[in-house]
TrEMBL record:
Alphabetized PROSITE patterns for the sequence: APAG
One Pfam family this sequence matches: DUF525
Chain ranges of the ApaG domain: 1-125
The protein's name: Protein ApaG
NCBIfam families reported for this sequence: PRK05461.1
Length: 125
């Protein structure tokens, strides 16, 4: 399968202190996802699925069309980057999931998004 889609996912999360309210158990995080098309043909992201787990083990599932309101086409050698957010009731949690995509021939495939942490940085004294 030399022409199979090759897509790389990279995620970086950041704690948003200004929008958070620990006394109200509200911890706001942003995450930036970079989707790189390393294959030979175009791909399109059609949908997403997230499993968000807070520090108490409570899971929330989120799924829908596209990301941040778009279903981007990504040409070979190009990347698409977006930033979104999540709100947790705990200062530590995780996210993981997958993207539903199609290749240039209309063949569907799924790309896993490895687990990443949402964490309030430790206070440095």
């Amino acid at each position: 399968m030399i022409n199979s889609p090759r897509v790389c996912i990279q995620v970086q999360s950041v704690y948003i202190e200004a929008q958070s309210s620990p006394e109200d158990e509200r911890y706001v995080f942003s995450y930036t996802v970079t989707i790189r098309n390393l294959g030979r043909g175009s791909v399109q992201l059609l949908g997403r699925y997230w499993l968000i787990t807070n520090g108490h083990g409570r899971e929330t599932e989120v799924q829908g069309e596209g990301v941040v309101g778009v279903q981007p086409h990504i040409a070979p050698g190009n990347e698409y980057q977006y930033t979104s957010g999540a709100v947790l009731e705990t200062p530590l949690g995780t996210m993981q999931g997958h993207y539903e995509m199609i290749d240039a021939d209309g063949n569907p495939f799924s790309i896993d998004i490895p687990v990443f942490r949402l964490a309030v940085p430790a206070l440095i004294h």
